[in-house]
Amino acid sequence: MKALIMSDSHGWTEEVQQVVDRHKNEVDVMFHCGDSELKADAPCLQNVRTVRGNCDFDSTFKEELVEEVVETRFFVAHGHLLNVKMTEMNLLFKGEETGADIICYGHTHIPVAVQEKGKVIINPGSMRLPRQVKEGTYVILEATDATFHVTFFNMDGEKVENLSKSFSKIG
């Protein structure tokens, strides 16, 4: 199973479309963790499961998503309603509550990949307004029988090795 995870594109359409086009034939699902600042029917978000961020005004976006994709359960939220700038604990609780294997969020604009209590927590960083890194990023997650591989990419589609990580599946 492979998933494209992006967030915080803040009004970009062409760049989001480029990332979608670059990976659409290799992934099983595409998520946007909010603050697209686009309407839900924006062409670049077609086939992208998108949650509502604090800068999104289209009320048709859901605040949270729980999706099962090829035996991998995702919990996706922007994170502003879960106070992610202070702690990831609320995300972890929501992940446990929903039975998620993968917890995805945005809002902080800081790329993160960690494993807590057997759950992989991913913030793909901001595509447009990165923090603590020099360039915008997004993630391709690959789940194998034993491992979750989290690969960060810059907006040119080049791997960002120092952010990328692999985690053993637990349980």
Number of strands: 11
Measured distance between first and last alpha carbons: 18 Å
General shape: globular
Main sheet overview? 6 strands, mixed
The CATH topology: Purple Acid Phosphatase, chain A, domain 2
> DSSP strand (E) fraction?
25-35%
Helical content stands at 10-25%
- The residue-averaged pLDDT reads 97
Rg computed from alpha carbons, rounded to a whole number of angstroms: 14 Å
Outline the secondary-structure elements:
Layout: E1 2-6, H1 14-23, E2 29-32, E3 49-50, E4 64-69, E5 72-77, H2 89-98, E6 102-104, E7 112-116, E8 119-123, E9 137-143, E10 147-154, E11 165-168
Describe this structure as you would to a colleague.
The protein has 171 residues and is mainly beta. It has one domain (2-168): Purple Acid Phosphatase, chain A, domain 2 (4-Layer Sandwich), CATH 3.60.21. It contains two helices and eleven strands, in the order E-H-E-E-E-E-H-E-E-E-E-E-E. The protein has helices at 14-23, 89-98, and strands at 2-6, 29-32, 49-50, 64-69, 72-77, 102-104, 112-116, 119-123, 137-143, 147-154, 165-168. The strands form two sheets. A six-stranded mixed β-sheet has the order 3-2-1-9-10-11, with no helix packed on it. Strands 4-5-6-8-7 form a five-stranded mixed β-sheet, with helices on one face. The two termini are 18 Å apart. The relative contact order is 0.18. The mean pLDDT is 97.
